[in-house]
Specification:
Blueprint (H helix, E strand, L loop, with lengths): L15 H22 L3 E2 L1 H4 L1 E8 L5 H8 L8 E4 L6 E6 L9 H13 L4 E8 L4 E8 L5 H10 L5 E5 L6 E7 L1 H16 L4 E9 L1 H29 L2 H24 L3 E2 L1 H31 L5 H11 L1 H21 L5 H35 L1
């Protein structure tokens, strides 16, 4: 099946300079968006923390949800509209992990600043479990749980709870809230404001900050290494100039796709990384087809200039490119509109990446072959 008649000769080479300007503009627009938003909008996979996905029976405003959550002691809560009907929301909370010092050391410093070093002692070291970190504290005089919690929050310990241990008001258990406890607090606050039947919790996800940071680093390396290795493969399979063009084209596709996600303020999570790796694989496949035809025509059409050979090669593979990309994009459009909000960013990234990947195979990878020839002649 051919959509483009044999012998068609669109002059793609004539527009190479305009294409470079267009690509540069898209890249700068994406970088400007990153600067405006203060970097990527990392999801819980990379930023760490806890996300509670809530669906209400009736459309609800973000302001009302925030007002309900203000009654809790959870710090730095953010609420994001997740659906298109105004009834699904993501409630995000940070998950604090001790870095250089342990949780018990932080508790001791916070209490010392408020009550003094001689007014209490730590009776039990920190432990960890499903409910988070915990330490037991005994005061020399009866104390108040609310004052203790206030002192710890002021010391930078967010999301802590203080429980009276039942020894005359002088012993307490201080916990750094875990996933189950924080999600329970959210449900309790929403129930008090809207009622138990007004909403449902659809999912709860939690990733520690250290784990999120490690995932972010590995995701970046995965995309970078896949791009470089694809370029090296094409350099060995064809010629070095083809490999450089392919690597630049792949990097071009990833950067523009990431910029588009930033412009739409969509989340960067593991599904988006999967989309970026898919884009690298799809784009390099299209680039290999074009490069292979260029190399084949360079052997057959020795009297023609390289610019004419590139034009002919792109035109000869144009039907295949349109059919392959078109069928893939049709599926992605269905995913984008019918797949739900959970894979919305994934489908959007594929939609942009596949489109840009096809463009880059023609207007980014191919021109590099021509650029290398011109430099060789100058020398």
């Amino acid at each position: 099946m051919e959509l483009i008649k044999p012998g068609t000769n669109f002059d793609f080479v004539r527009f190479f300079k305009y294409a470079y300007t267009f690509s540069l503009a898209l890249i700068l627009l994406g970088l400007a968006s990153f600067w405006y938003h203060g970097g990527p909008n990392y999801g819980v996979d990379f930023a760490g923390g806890i996300v509670v996905h809530v669906k209400f029976v009736q459309p609800t405003s973000i302001a009302d949800i925030r007002q309900a959550l203000e009654a809790t002691d959870i710090a730095n809560v953010t609420v994001q509209d997740f659906g298109q009907g105004g009834n699904e929301f993501l409630i995000r909370m940070p998950m604090v992990e001790s870095a250089a010092e342990g949780f018990s050391d932080q508790v001791q410093k916070g209490l010392s600043a408020k009550f003094g070093d001689q007014t209490f002692e730590l009776r039990r070291g920190e432990t960890s479990g499903a409910s988070g970190m915990a330490v037991q504290v005994k005061f020399t005089q009866p104390n108040n749980a609310a004052e203790i919690e206030q002192a710890l929050v002021a010391a930078g310990l967010a999301n802590v709870t203080v429980e009276d241990f039942g020894r005359g008001g002088s012993e307490f258990v201080i916990r750094e809230a875990g996933t189950a406890e924080l999600s329970a607090k959210v449900q309790k606050a929403l129930s008090a404001k809207f009622g138990d039947q007004a909403f449902e919790v659809r999912r709860v996800e939690a990733v520690g900050p250290k784990v999120g940071s490690e995932l972010r680093r590995k995701a970046l390396l995965a995309v970078l290494f896949s791009t470089v290795m694809m370029g090296i493969f094409i350099a060995f399979r064809f010629e070095p100039r083809f490999g450089v063009g392919a690597a630049v084209a792949l990097l071009h596709d990833v950067v523009i796709t990431a910029g588009a996600l930033s412009l739409m303020n969509m989340e960067f999570d593991l599904t988006v990384v999967a989309a970026l790796l898919t884009i690298v694989g799809f784009s390099v496949n299209d680039t290999v087809i074009v490069c292979d035809r260029i190399r084949e025509n360079m052997r057959k059409l020795r009297r023609e200039s390289l610019a004419e050979i590139i034009n002919r090669s792109v035109n000869e593979t144009l039907s295949r490119t349109i059919i392959t990309t078109g069928t893939a994009v049709l599926v992605i459009i269905a995913l984008f509109f019918l797949g739900g909000e959970v894979i919305h960013a994934f489908a959007f990234a594929l939609l942009v990446g596949f489109t840009v990947g096809t463009y880059s195979s023609i207007y980014v990878a191919s021109p590099f072959v021509l650029l290398f020839e011109k430099r060789g002649k100058r020398r």
